[in-house]
Amino acid sequence: MRTQRTSLFGKYRALVFAVATFFVLSVSVNVYSLNFSSLRQVEADATKINDGGKLRDAGAPTSNEPGP
Question: What is the reported pTM?
């Protein structure tokens, strides 16, 4: 009597491969999306900081203006 050697996933190998592929692609898209949104937020914050620095410099006296 021969015993059949079963593979790791048997007849569901294609289904397991499809689900695993979908999971990997889904996670990679979510990581990219999170990274992209984080970079946009950093860019917006940097713009606000730069604008604040310009306002501060605009109100500061320059060296060629006479002092009080």
Answer: 0.51
